Amino acid sequence: MSSPYGGPPPLRDYEVLQPISTRAGVTMYAGRQRFTGQSVALLLLDPALAASDHLLGARLVAAARRASQVNDPAVVATYDVIEEPGALGVVTEPVDGAWLDELIRPGSPLPPAAALVVIDAVLSALEAAHRGGLVHGGVAAGAVLVTPGGQPRLGGFATSAALPGGVDADTANDLLATATLAHLLLTGAPPSPEGNIAAPTVAGVGDVLARALAADPQARYQSAADFRAALLGVAFTGLGPAWRLSSDLADRVAAAAARRGPAAAQPATPSRAASPVGPAAAAAVAAALGAERSGAPGAEDKPPVSGPVPGFRTPPPPGSAVLAGAAAPPLAMAPSDPPSSYLPPPPPRLPVHPAAPEPSGRRRSTIVLMVAGAVLVLGGIATAVVFLLTRNSTSGPLTVGTDVKLEVNKVSGSNCDNTFNFVATGSLSGSGTLTYHFERSDQQRTDDMKVQIDNNPGFEFRTAWRFIGQRTGKQTMTFVVTSPTTRQVNKDIDVTCP
Q1: What's the CA gap between 325 and 435, in Å, rounded?
Q2: Which of 27, 65, 468, 74 lies closest to 274, judged by CA?
């Protein structure tokens, strides 16, 4: 496969292997870190694109440094930046799979579960990025990788934020782009210019999209967490507690791989449709900001030095276990579902009033009238009791049931690349604030997550744990509720990589 460089450019810290693709002014290579032998993906910008924007290198370094600290299982990890004479680019985690735009057809929506799994992952990635002060700037189908196990990953943070079109983007742009993508996946078409929202098949999703795409920015969701909580609520009520299991993304990835053939496997770095290479490529790249693009390689060979640029997360050495997307120590493990992924409140239970006896005329005896009056009085008392019991059953301070459970599901990977999804569930009653976190046996844990509960019958919280490289033995995930009552439950997993 040819590249605008006439061959792999020599790099200081990375060995450049075969090119994967050249699109939108970016050549993507399979690569390897010279000092550890770890496989990586190298995204190198066309030299003409870099030459047309003298500030591009500085923006890319700043964005890549922030992107390297984003910690979420739904993010394609950024390892390093390449800034050498004649070479500008980004080093990312290599992930097999297919890009989302390969899995959809114009005019054809994805099945609801598959579409919601994608948008949930995108919002999870954005929540982690926005928390670290990083804006994506190019959320689109071409920025989302779907792994062979059907897990969506969002890439392109560093390049999208640095390239033209992403420089002035903010969190509101990211959320609006995500809402547009959600409309496309759920209905088969982008939102109309008139603002009309097509009606998805899942009840309540239309209302969520209408708010996310509102003409008034103040009427939209103001954070990725709020948007995600609303989406998960309608997914749970519309598709059931096990809605994620209905996703067919893994099958779609397998079909895409079969269409490409065995020689077309690609590491994770979003790439878009081909566009001209040269100074005009900047506009094309800006329109395709979902791509994991980087670096303007020329070809100047330099002797190896001690290692990658300080301040960046380096690829893990062979044989180590890492959390996908983990930042340099201290690490904070980000849950894969937001703190507000709980069951929606049940519909109000209304008291039933017994019908009053019809009068039968003046000839009804006094005894019958007395009986009728007694029935009315007793009916009123019964109604009041039912009302009070019903009201008390869904009000009062928040309590967490003793039925808290933690389940695990191995969702993807081979023997030496394993991802485990953990799901914590339990019953609730009353209203108040629920505080929880996840802990791991390697001493990493999430931040305390606070959820406002309003008469919700239960909760469902998720997180993921990924292992890469040689590792054998038992590991433990713990789910802990710290408020309003203390609950703790553990789940062991066996990780085997001989």
Answers
A1: 24
A2: 27
Does 298 score more than 60 pLDDT?
no
DSSP letter at 169 equals -
pTM for the full model? 0.58
The whole-angstrom separation of Cα 72 and Cα 205 is 25
**Residue 105 gets which letter from DSSP?**
B
Phi, psi of 394 (to 5 degrees): -125, 20
Q: State the sign of the Cα–Cα–Cα–Cα dihedral 312, 317, 323, 325.
A: positive
- Whose structure tokens read 């804006």? 135
Query: Residue 432 — very low, low, confident or very high, per pLDDT cuts 50/70/90?
Result: confident
With a cut of 80, say whether residue 418 has pLDDT above it. no
Q: 442-464: buried (b, 16+ CB within 10 Å) or exposed (e) per residue?
A: eebebeebebebebbebbebbbb
| Helix (H/G/I), strand (E/B), else coil: 286 | helix
- Integer Cα distance of 321 and 421 in angstroms: 16
Residue 317 CA: distances (Å) to CA of 34, 321, 355, 493: 11, 9, 76, 23
Which pair of tokens denotes residue 464?
């993921």
Report the 10 Å Cβ neighbour count for 145: 27
pLDDT tens, residue by residue, 462-481: 888 877 766 678 889 999 99
